[in-house]
Amino acid sequence: MVLGQHDSFQVPYVGLKQEFGQRQEELLAAFSTVAANASYILREDVELFEESIAKMLGVRYAIGVNSGTDALFLALKALDIGKGDEVITVAHTFVATVSTIVHCGAKPVLIDIADDFNLAVEKLEQAVTASTRAIIPVHMNGRCCNMDALLAIAGKYRLHVIEDAAQSLGAHINGVYAGNFGIINAFSLHPMKSLHCYGDGGLVTTNDRCLAEQVRLLRNHGQNQNKELVAFGFNSRLDNLQAALLNVNLKYFESDIKRRRQIALRYHTGLMNCVDLKLPQPPKDSGYFDTFSSYPIRCLKRDQLLRHLRQKNIECFIHWEKPLHLNESIKLGNFDLPVTEQVSREVLSLPIHPFLDDEQCEYVIAAIKEFFNGC
């Protein structure tokens, strides 16, 4: 999906235009303040955002970076993961999860997912080798992975855990938020994410002071707070303007997630009798809190349903049509991932965002029921 192409849809997949309409005064005021002060790079708005998001997540350190991709890359670099190392993750994810491993010189080892779209923990231990250094669980669609079981395996083999929480900011298990389970963790603040800026942005979280300092060095060309060059780093700063806009959106984050959960419940209630659909199921453990960055349904006639919904001016999204290991041009190798491949043929994400009203939700439900002859 290319942002900016959904204006013609009666029910758009994201609500960025509506969001700007409702928050315009605050967003423009934040922009004007930054511009008037000419405070663009690593200034007070970045510091405020880092402090606020760290407090919300209950994590000691939060470091704003240029993108979710950079957040993953810098997390790997901070742990000195590189040539000769293996990192276990999934193929059912955005390419950045795997490309950052490759760019560090390490080898991605891909395992299958479970029915909740998250890493199948029961497949994890058999993928561990003498070269394994880390595991990257991807918290999909606003739900955390089974972190108790995953951390037990990581501890057994003394492996680092790096959470890819790009899709699950605000999700938690028994009050422990995503971004706290791993030694160092990555978030995206892309416009399609539940908390977002208006361009690229990312976030690294950790409870380890040394790793936090390392990421702060790496994001700013290897310079410390005194502008002394102490390492070779990268240009990966969250700019102050985006941070100022994030500080506006952060005020609405709790209510935004509440609305997403309301929409998810409405979809579930409205579609639960459609036997040809497989809906996201409530977590088996009541301690899980899902944020529904996406609402993925599964259907054997996915492509036909997608065409039908588009004809009804309903915008949907496929996460993801081709699993990474099946892209021959990037040569990841051969992996046996039957659930991943089946999901890629069946999955379709319905519109879900805080500005979707009840009438639009019911229109989506009615259109799906029409496709299945009333179900």
Textual characterization of the structure:
There is one protein chain. The protein is of the alpha/beta class and 375 residues long. It folds into 2 domains: 17-246, Aspartate Aminotransferase, domain 2 (3-Layer(aba) Sandwich); 253-372, Aspartate Aminotransferase, domain 1 (Alpha-Beta Complex). The protein has helices spanning 16-37, 44-57, 68-78, 96-103, 147-157, 209-219, 240-250, 253-271, 302-311, 338-346, 358-371, and strands at 61-65, 86-90, 107-111, 132-135, 160-164, 172-173, 176-177, 184-188, 202-206, 277-278, 288-289, 295-299, 347-350. A hairpin with a 2-residue loop joins β6 and β7. The chain is globular. The protein starts with 15 loop residues before the first helix and ends with a helix.
* Structural class estimated from helices and strands: alpha/beta
Major sheet characteristics: 7 strands, mixed
At the third CATH level, what is the topology name of the largest domain? Aspartate Aminotransferase, domain 2
The average pLDDT value, as a whole number, equals 96
Task: Tell me what portion of residues adopts beta-strand conformation.
Answer: 5-15%
The gross shape turns out to be: globular
Count of separate structural domains: 2
CATH-derived architecture of the largest domain: 3-Layer(aba) Sandwich
Distance between the termini: 30 Å
DSSP strand count: 13
SSE topology string: HHEHEHEEHEEEEEHHHEEEHHEH
The helix count comes to: 11
Low-confidence stretches: none
Q: Estimate percent helicity.
A: 25-40%
Please name the fourth-level CATH homologous superfamily of the largest domain.
Answer: Type I PLP-dependent aspartate aminotransferase-like (Major domain)
Radius of gyration: 21 Å
Return the CATH class of the largest domain: Alpha Beta
Largest sheet: spatial strand order = 1-9-8-5-4-2-3
